[in-house]
Amino acid sequence: MNLNRSALLIGATGLVGAYVKREISQNSDYENLTTFVRKQTTETQPKLNEVKIDFDKMSDYKEHFKVDDLFVCLGTTKKKAGTQENFRKVDFDYVVEAARLAKENGVTRIAVVSAIGADENSRFFYNHVKGEMEKAVSAIGIPSTYFFRPSLLLGDREEFRLGERIGEVLGTAIQPVLRGKLKKYRSVHGQTVAKAMVRFLKDGRNGVHIVESDLIAKIGDL
Known about the structure:
This protein has a single domain (5-160, 188-220), classed as Rossmann fold, CATH 3.40.50.720. Helices cover 39% and strands 20% of the residues. The protein is built from seven helices and nine strands, in the order E-H-E-E-E-H-H-E-H-E-E-H-E-H-E-H.
């Protein structure tokens, strides 16, 4: 991988996105990093170019897609979104639009946070949308496309989510019994996911790659 690469990160304020921002900021392979945010923050660092955007008008900011690598860490919950339509807008529409704009601007590598169980044929709405997103992004044809499917995410969030906090406790408790084929259902830390995303994209093999949670944990913890 060439040094002095540039990256665009979408979803920098989420759990995984915040860790991706940290990883890229500390990685000597990257000369600069652009992040899209809804609200401007006070963070300043040499590599960082923070851009406040209207996500419903992402094409208005297409000049910022002239980078080497794209990291997409967008995602919401059905409860926070309020409706299935709003959920789909964030987890499908925004992600696919970002990939489309990246392709138009010559981006050759993309890393997208998906979810364990993503399947366009799933009866579960969440998994169904994630599966459709993977299919749509794959069809855009960015040479090196990676989808990361983490299990239950651990880490410090900006907002408190009771359901996810309970899930963390239960998930940690049953970790020892999740072995063999069940290993991919073990909870994984957001920082581990971020490390894996950066490392896999550095390798940047051509094709579409699905990275399940157990492999995320293995590579991210190296």
